[in-house]
Amino acid sequence: MATEYFTVPENTSPLDHRAMQLEQYGARTYDMVVSAWECTACKVTVGGPPAMILPVVNYRLPADLEEWVAEAGASAVENAEIPCCEACGEAAELGHVDYFAHHSTMQVDMVVRWSPAGGARIFRWSPSLGFGPMPAMSEDEERLFVRDALLRGASAARDHNASEEADEILLEAAERFPGENEWLEFLPWLSGSGKFSVAGAIAAGHAEAHPEDPEGHFWLGQIAVDLVALKIWGEEKLGEAEAHFERALACQPQHPLARLGLANVARMRGDLAAARRHLESLLAKTPNHAEGLYTLALIELDGNPGRALALFEQGAALRPRDADYLRGMARALLALGHPAEAQAAAFRAKQHAPGDQRIDELLLAALAAVKG
Ligand SMILES: [Zn+2]
Q1: What does the pLDDT look like over 153-187, one tens digit per residue?
Q2: Distance 292 CA to ligand 1 centre (A)
Q3: Beta bridge partner(s), residue 54
Q4: Residue 86 CA to ligand 1 centre (angstroms)
Q5: What 3-state DSSP class applies to 111?
Q6: Residue 126 pairs with which residues in a beta bridge?
Q7: CA 87 / ligand 1 centre spacing (Å)
Q8: Least CB-packed of 42, 130, 216, 352 within 10 Å?
Q9: Where are the domains of the chain?
Q10: 356 and 349 in contact (C-beta within 8 Å)?
């Protein structure tokens, strides 16, 4: 089967473990494989290898899964370490393999039971219903199974930093199921790791499927701003970003991140007055918006370091482990002529971001000012 997998913890029954995982992760629960072994001579079951948890999805439709389990089951028999019977010491035989994959809409697992003798048969299992016959799936239920498979596959790939695999699955997801809310949760990760084309496909699909929802528009704007900031796109694209943010605000007038996006567009254009207006409006509605406080503080640093300091302090109280706010405080304190306090703030910042050279430069500047 898959080369990389986890096992169910010792002393936990696979089905109990499965129930807990489903409770916690729902459709994102990784698939599980349990094998049952028996001694044909003594007619007893023999404990086999621990149940496997598979952070990978090798199928789309229920029929694909059935086919895949049949193939993988046959090769697993060849590769498995065969357990021995405790009574007679003979090698046990594989009774069957159960493969569990969740169907979130039907609220049951589809279980493919494969045995060397009988091939593949399909059951359903859930913590409350146990095993039973799997009801026939409607076309729509099959579609929703595919969606769950894509969600699981993408989550697993993200969790294990299998970035290219995640890209492929998410592109397929955006194409086959445009506008599903589940894909939105991948956007911060995708854009944070520079996967702008995949992020863009998800955002565009969302904006088209749900034009009344601000999230797709907001993300289209954010991706454009990121691309301009990285100089992958030219500044002429800021107009597009602005239009996306405006669209998001038309859907939800208080959307804080869309307002922040407009402020960033204005900053990138050098229009600090407009940036300040957007940020004041954001903070009037959402006074504790950490990124909003930070961005406004950056603008205030030049002309009004006292206010910048107050804003950075407010942000530092909200995000005590984030070095950016402390570093900002150090800059403001230096500008205000308080080098000793600036030094103290920079030291605190350094504890959270030891590798940040900007903090070292601030420490040197503060030291020079203290001596001077
Ligand atoms: Zn035996």
Answers
A1: 999 999 998 999 999 999 999 999 999 999 999 99
A2: 70
A3: 31
A4: 6
A5: strand
A6: 130
A7: 5
A8: 130
A9: 6-143, 303-372
A10: yes
**Alpha helices, DSSP H only, in 160-237?**
163-176, 181-184, 187-192, 196-209, 214-229
Lookup: tokens for 207: 């904006």
Three-state SS sequence of 56-67? CCCCCCHHHHHH
Ligand 1 centroid – CA 4 distance (Å): 31
Task: Report, at the CATH architecture level, how domain 303-372 is classified.
Answer: Alpha Horseshoe (1.25)
Angle in degrees, 0-180, between the axes of helices 196-209 and 214-229, rounded to the nearest 10: 150
Residue 297 pLDDT exceeds 50: yes
Ligand 1 centre from 34 Cα, in Å?
21
CA of 49 to the centre of ligand 1 (A): 17
pTM above the 0.70 mark?
Answer: yes
> Ligand 1 centroid to 89 CA: how many Å?
6
Q: What token pair was written down for 221?
A: 């704007």
Residue 185 pLDDT: 96
CA 127 to chain centre: 27
Measured between its terminal Cα atoms, the distance across the chain in Å is 69
| CB burial readout 92-108, b (16+ within 10 A) else e | bbbbbbbbbbbbbebeb
Residue 149 amino acid letter: A
One-letter amino acid for residue 298 of the chain: L
Cβ atoms of 153 and 57 within 8 Å: the answer is: yes
Over its C-alpha atoms, the chain yields an Rg (Å, rounded) of 28
Distance in Å, CA 81 to ligand 1 centroid: 17
CA distances from 313 to 50, 181, 280, 333 (A): 52, 35, 17, 11
